[in-house]
Structures are given as C-alpha cells and as structure tokens.
Amino acid sequence: GITPKFSKNITSYNVVVSNEVNNINVVAVPEDNNASVTVSGNNNLIEGSNIITISVTAPDGKTRKNVRTRK
After folding, report:
1. In this structure, are residues 71 and 15 in contact, taking their beta carbons and an 8 Å threshold?
2. pLDDT tens digits, 36-51
C-alpha cells in the first residue's frame, strides 16, 4: 500500500511493488470538479526508484499541487 496514508496536505508518498510490475494505475480526483489532473511516470517502470508525478491544475490554469510517489 501507499505510505504515509493519503492526506491532501502531504505531497510525497512511497509504494513498494514487485519488480514484475511495469505500470501503475493512478486514480486521482480533484476536490474542484473544474480542475484537471495529469499523471506522468506511471508507465514503463524500471527496477528501483521511479517517480510518479500527479499534477492538479486549477480552473484558472495555475498548477496548485504536485504530488510525487516513489515506487
């Protein structure tokens, strides 16, 4: 599972998966329905550390939050 437990105020998480995992499906839902979410780095994972970035962009176009998860 993901550590620490998810909180909107935490921006860095860790998850451990087996070396056979090549892709991670990330589901991220913004609090504001008009905001957009993009996920990068969750495909073509390699053995060792990988950084997955989740960016939330507000309706005004400003990126408000970047969350990084290390595999």
Report:
1. yes
2. 999 999 999 999 889 9
